[in-house]
Recover the amino acids of this structure.
């Protein structure tokens, strides 16, 4: 199965789940409404079902090369680190969380020398915190 | 009317505005000159900086960043053979060879002057056509508006990315994500999963930053880790001053190419879905095809720089035509601008001229000023931006990432905005991986509330009777055009599929 056929099948399946499970369970209906509030989500679901099926039947030749999987997985790992840092905002505060995040992200961007790594990991969060707190007057946690 | 026009233009000439335009242009040029950082990233960084500004200053600042980024992108294209922004990709073809001949400043001057000419001319076109087009757009009812949006989605889905089907899938995902929150007509919750934070829907700016900018930043960080993107920079020391000079006569020698490139850039900018990169390459290839001595193009010929830079800069002003007259963002930068417009209480579209006309003309004034400041800053800063090209990735990408996170927090006032941005980023990464373009998704996400409102109103007007469309000839024409476009794009895809696959080198 090619990537496009797999994608088409996944999209069509998602459309079906949306139509038969997610929309009925998550779009509330009240009597007397002039128009069904689930109309637009149902249009999306039908589009996904039809287009996903079309993709299964006629896989497209990619004109753009997607990024290598390794890069996307590294990207997802970075996103996971940001989620952890964001979760720490309320508990530890902005500065400790972002300094910890930078300690993970800066080595990921090819910086392994200890002194620059320390300077960037400490300097960037402090500079951005000061910019938002004192210049833009936005309170950070 | 003239009061609004003159008053608006005068509003742009305040000291505060001039200061922020100067800062915006400088920031844009620096970011554009930095390989790996794009204009969208610059806008994502800049949007949170506008919190405390009044709407005109904020929009002027962001437009200045956009304009500066287009000029700055030529610097690494010329010095490193790596476009600082995708817009400048065609500039590498002749800019870098000219720099290798010992004329890097000459190449950058050509790029700056033609970029200025293209941008300024397209701004004038915008100013002249936007208001009359908006008047026409205002005459359209909900039925016509709904059909116009369907037409816009068809064009964007067909032109952007590798296939029409994938473009439409991305559009459907945009519809779906935009339907999260309270339904506009009745206030019925949809996909809120009992979370109060979702009642207002997904924050537009957070989604834009996540799907457009943060996706690029995390992928660039991953690329930096693999050691890609390291290039040798051309030295700016010991340059022959005479060989690097560009006179007015030199510029006028390619006036026909510049005018043609401006027309290409303006036309492409006005069509939603296409962007500066397409304009630059299309204009370059046309110049190469029509030049009698076309073997010189690609070897440091100023005609190559003229065609690429004039066209890609002409897109900047023209892509605001569909945004301001119809509310349809033409490209990614315009999508980022929409989020900023809405953040500052403005709804792009024809009503903007009626409700906030003075602000629109203030923005036009700021755009004209920004062009001249762009020229001045580029003239002075060119040598300095050359040093920016060697800025370390270990500072750039983490810094941009942290600005996005902090911006998303500040925009939404809670960590929830950061989570929305991250979810959009994950979606962007997955979409890129499976070959779905993010642009139709974002445009659909932005336009869905208006489309839904127009559809609901259309259904109420027509009572769901298709025959009632007979009383709306413009809507019929738009629907026929959409069907024609679907057929044309589908046929193109079918032909591409049947063509033999290119052999691997």
């Amino acid at each position: 199965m090619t990537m496009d056929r797999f994608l088409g099948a996944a999209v069509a399946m998602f459309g079906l789940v949306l139509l038969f499970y997610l929309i009925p369970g998550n779009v509330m209906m009240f009597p007397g409404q002039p128009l069904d509030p689930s109309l637009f989500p149902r249009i999306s679901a039908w589009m996904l079902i039809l287009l996903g099926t079309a993709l299964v039947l006629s896989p497209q030749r990619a004109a753009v090369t997607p990024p290598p999987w390794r890069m996307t997985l590294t990207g997802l790992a970075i996103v996971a680190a940001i989620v952890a840092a964001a979760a720490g905002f309320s508990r530890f505060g902005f500065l400790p969380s972002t300094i910890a995040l930078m300690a993970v992200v800066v080595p990921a961007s090819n910086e392994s020398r200890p002194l620059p790594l320390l300077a960037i990991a400490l300097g960037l969060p402090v500079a951005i915190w000061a910019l938002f707190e004192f210049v833009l007057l936005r309170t950070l946690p | 009317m003239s009061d609004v026009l003159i008053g608006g233009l005068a509003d742009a000439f305040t000291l505060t505005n001039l200061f922020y335009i100067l800062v915006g242009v400088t920031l844009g040029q620096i970011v554009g000159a930095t390989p790996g950082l794009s204009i969208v990233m610059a806008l994502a960084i800049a949007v949170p900086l506008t919190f405390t500004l009044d709407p005109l200053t904020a929009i002027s600042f962001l437009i200045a960043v956009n304009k500066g980024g287009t000029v700055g992108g030529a610097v690494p294209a010329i010095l490193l053979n790596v476009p600082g922004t995708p817009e400048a990709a065609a500039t590498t073809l002749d800019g870098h060879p000219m720099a290798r001949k010992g004329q890097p400043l000459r190449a950058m001057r050509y790029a700056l002057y033609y970029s200025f000419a293209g941008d300024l001319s397209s701004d004038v076109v915008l100013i002249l056509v936007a208001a009359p087009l908006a008047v026409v757009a205002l005459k359209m009812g909900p039925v016509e508006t709904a059909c116009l949006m369907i037409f816009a989605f068809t064009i964007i889905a067909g032109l952007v990315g590798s296939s029409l089907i994938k473009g439409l899938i991305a559009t459907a995902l945009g519809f779906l994500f935009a339907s999260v929150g309270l339904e506009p007509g009745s206030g019925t919750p949809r996909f809120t999963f009992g979370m109060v934070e979702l009642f207002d829907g997904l924050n537009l700016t957070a989604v834009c930053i996540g799907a457009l900018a943060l996706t690029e930043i995390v992928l660039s960080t991953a690329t930096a880790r693999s050691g890609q993107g390291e290039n040798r920079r051309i030295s700016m020391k010991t340059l022959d001053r005479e060989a690097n000079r560009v006179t007015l006569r030199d510029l006028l020698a390619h006036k026909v190419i510049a005018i043609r490139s401006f027309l290409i850039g303006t036309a492409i900018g006005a069509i939603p879905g296409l962007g500066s990169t397409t304009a630059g390459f299309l204009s370059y290839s046309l110049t190469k095809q029509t030049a009698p001595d076309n073997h010189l193009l690609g070897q440091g010929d100023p005609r190559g720089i003229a065609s690429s830079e004039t066209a890609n800069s002409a897109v900047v002003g023209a892509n605001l035509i569909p945004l301001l007259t119809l509310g349809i963002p033409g490209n990614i930068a315009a999508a980022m601008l929409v989020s900023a417009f809405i953040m500052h209480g403005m709804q792009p579209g024809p009503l903007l001229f009626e409700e906030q006309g003075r602000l629109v003309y203030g923005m036009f004034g700021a755009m004209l000023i920004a062009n001249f400041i762009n020229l001045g800053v580029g003239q002075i800063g060119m040598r300095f931006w050359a040093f920016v090209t060697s800025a370390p990735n270990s500072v750039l990408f983490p810094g941009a990432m942290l600005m996005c996170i902090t911006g998303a927090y500040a925009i939404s006032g809670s960590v929830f905005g950061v989570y929305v941005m991250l979810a959009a980023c994950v979606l962007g990464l997955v979409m890129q991986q499976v070959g779905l373009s993010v642009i139709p998704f974002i445009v659909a996400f932005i336009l869905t509330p208006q489309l839904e409102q127009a559809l609901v109103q259309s259904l109420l007007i027509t009572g769901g009777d298709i025959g009632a469309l007979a009383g709306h000839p413009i809507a019929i024409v738009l629907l026929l055009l959409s069907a024609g476009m679907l057929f044309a794009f589908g046929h193109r895809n079918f032909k591409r599929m049947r063509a033999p696959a290119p052999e691997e080198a």
The beta strands of chain B are 181-182, 189-190.
